[in-house]
Design goal:
With 229 residues, the protein is an all-alpha fold. Helices cover 81% and strands 0% of the residues. It has 8 helices and no strands. Helix 3 runs antiparallel to helix 5 and helix 6 packs antiparallel against helix 7.
């Protein structure tokens, strides 16, 4: 994807010769966008629900621990030594479960951060693509090419979200924390790379439009249109 994006300026320059700049009314939003949006929302909803459940479980476990600790504090020294193994195991079980729950919440928070970046990618695509489609400095062929590039990036987004679902499913299967963390970090790196590619591609297209502006007035209009300072 990065190699393709680096070629965009050269490829678009080929259209400068003999291709009239005109708006492309037939270029529309990509259907895959709605899929990416829906799946991203599904991930966010699933994460929020799981975090809420784990937070409720944390409160319950902490209260249970507190009750045991209060009961222990009322025992005499000799009574504590006679505390049954069952009670000791129960306390140990609460403590270990609480540690697992807190660890899971940390993972979910990390996944939520990654998903927020995915949401920003969607927003950046939508806002910039809507402007590019209105820009008369680009031909229909150029916009079709851009559309193909954007579609590739959104396809990559689907793959990245699949990785996130893999992590979510890992909490119901036997997976080590090390493996889970590896998947999370890989998904984070991939989404960040995809986001960076999209931002770079957007900037290249905006700058190309700016380069095609023929008068100072036109340059000013382009800057205002895209919010370029």
């Amino acid at each position: 994807m990065k190699a393709r994006i680096k070629l965009i300026t050269c490829v678009l320059c080929l259209f400068l010769v003999g291709t009239p700049a005109r708006p492309a009314e037939n270029i529309v939003a990509l259907p895959i966008l709605e899929i990416v949006k829906a799946v991203t929302k599904k991930v966010i909803k699933a994460i929020d629900l799981r975090i809420q459940r784990l937070q409720n479980k944390t409160i319950w476990l902490q209260n249970a621990q507190k009750q045991i600790e209060n009961a222990l504090s009322k025992l005499k020294l000799e009574e504590i030594s006679q505390w049954t193994k069952k009670q000791r195991d129960l306390y140990k079980g609460y403590y270990e479960e609480l540690a697992r729950v807190k660890s899971a919440i940390t993972y979910y928070q990390r996944i939520k951060e990654i998903t927020r970046l995915q949401t920003r990618l969607i927003q950046q695509y939508e806002s910039t693509w809507n402007l590019l489609r209105q820009d008369t400095h680009f031909s229909a062929a150029e916009l079709a090419y851009m559309q193909g590039m954007y579609e590739g990036m959104l396809q990559e987004s689907i793959k990245n979200i699949d990785q996130i679902f893999l992590v979510l499913d890992s909490f119901t299967t036997q997976m080590s924390d090390l493996k889970r963390l590896e998947i999370i970090n890989t998904a984070a790196d991939q989404i960040q790379a995809n986001y960076d590619d999209l931002i770079l591609f957007n900037k290249q297209n905006m700058l190309l439009s700016l380069q095609r502006a023929k008068t100072s007035h036109d340059v000013k209009k382009v800057r205002e249109f895209y919010g370029i300072k």
